């Protein structure tokens, strides 16, 4: 099992539009392709607001295939087009990391 850490820079002026799009559309469409969202957070630093979430995958091959299918989804493409036309860019910089447990890490979801 691997985890994927995603960090999106979001903008104060259209933060509600970003959250509505992710909550009402992205998460729903992602579920079609086997995305397992572990948790989602918002973090505000001195210079930017971030939306952070973690995905759980059985392996990298599954992750890669699911992302390709999601990005090719026609409904998602139309939602992105519509929301971008209405609100402008909803996401700035994106960070994407694969997280692999160390051999001495507690396993998430199991008591240490």
TrEMBL record:
UniProt-listed InterPro entries: Dimeric_a/b-barrel, NIPSNAP
Organism of this sequence: Phreatobacter stygius
Domain of life of the organism encoding this protein: Bacteria
Name of this chain's protein: NIPSNAP family containing protein
Residues annotated as domain NIPSNAP: 4-106
